[in-house]
Amino acid sequence: MIVAGAGGFATQIHDILYTLEPGRELVFYDDINRHNNRFLQQYQILHSADEVKDYFLTSNDKRFVLGVGKPALRKQFYEQFIGYGGEPYTVVSRSSIVGPYQVFIGDGVAVLSLSVIESNVRIGKGCLLNLNTLVTHDTSIGDFCEIGPGVRISGSCTIGDNVFIGTGAVLLPGIKVGTNSIIGAGSVVVDDVPGNSTVVGNPARIITK
Known about the structure:
The chain has about 210 residues and is of the alpha/beta class.
């Protein structure tokens, strides 16, 4: 299995995979920071597209996990690695809780420790739900979104594709967030957020659009 990335977030993914599949061979991919993560230097790290393609051609395990943040980067790696012959793998920490009724979690999603996903929730492909996030009932999250640590998403919210929600932000019930938007850390969102906007504050206000 390849983890796409070899930085700090890839270490978090490593820890979850270690508990889910002890002894599983892991390989990491990093074409930028070749020597920064000393912990991961104990593993094989691939540095080029050709190395990734060769791995998928020769390995029995075609799975890959997105080990990077930022919506655009997650989408880029997701599409590239499928093109190289990989199969996106969803990772859900054992310490997280997923509701028993009508929960859809797309391919290539990562749900980190202590998160809660209630029933009747849809999470699109390639999303990242960081530590201790809460997604409550009747909520839909689009593809390749990054939900930061401690975020609280109330019921019946709709979040578009490629949205970034910063640490500790709160979305009140029924909020709609447009595609490619950014919600700053600690913001309290009381009104809908248009696409391609950045909002910050309590209550959240648009600062760029």
